[in-house]
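Render Helix-turn-helix domain-containing protein in 3D.
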Amino acid sequence: MESLRDLGLSSYEDRAYRALLALGTGTAAAVAEESGVPKGRIYDALGGLESRGLVRVQTDREPKRYAPVEPAVAVDRLVEAKRRELNRRIETYESGKGELIDRLADAETADDEFWTAAVGADDSLDLLFERIDAAEESIVVVATDVSAQFDVDRDGPALLDRLLAAIRGGVDVSVLISPSVFDDARAAVDEDRATLTIAQGPFELRVTEDAYGNFYLIDGEEVCLEVADPLSPDRLFGMLDLRDRGFAARVNEGFEAAWADGTVVDEV
C-alpha cells in the first residue's frame, strides 16, 4: 500500500494525518498550512480522521488542537473497519499493513507535548489498552488499588494478555503492586498463566506498600494516570494520558525509588 487512501481515507484526510505526524500536534490552520489542504475543507478532513479514531482532540482551549494516534494504531483501526466492510479483500490489506506502518513511522515525531483523557471505566480501559499496544520499549505498571467499577475477573486477564503481547514483541514490562492488588490478581488469573508470565522475560513483578495510586509509564515518556472520583474515591472518574517527557521523568524517578525497595515475586 502506498498511502492511507488505500484503506478508505480521502486524499485530504490522508494529507491532514501525515501533516499531523510531522507537526506532533496542531490547530486546524496549522494542519491546513502543513498539508496544503484548503482551509475550507480542513475541518471536514479532521472530522473524518476523528470519526475513525485516528486523531485525538484537545477541546479545552481555542482553537482546538489535534494530535495523531501512532501509525500502528491508526492502521489497525482502518484495517478493522475494512474487515467489517470488505471481508473478501481483507488479506490484501493485511499483507500491506506493515509496509504502510513503516512509511508512516518515518515521518513520526514524538517531541511535542500533548494530553488527552477518557471518562468512565470502559473508555478508560480502551485508552489504556491502546497505549499499551503502542509501547515500543518499556511499560511500567504501578497499581495500589482497584476501582470498584473494574471487574477483576474479566479485566485482569485482559490486561495480562495485553502485557504478554507486549512482552512477545520485545517490550520490557515492570509491574509494581500493593499486597492487596497482588492478592486480587492472583485470585483472578489462573495459576498456569501467572506462572508463565513471571517466567518470561523481559518481565518482572514486585510487591510494595510504599507506592500510591495507579499509573502506567509507557516508553519512559508517556504516563496514563487513573483519576479517582473526588466524591467517591473508590470509583474511577477517568484516565488521563500525558505525553510529557519532563513529567514522565519525575514519575519514573518516584517509581525507581519504590521499585528498589519492593519485594521480588518469582513464583505464585
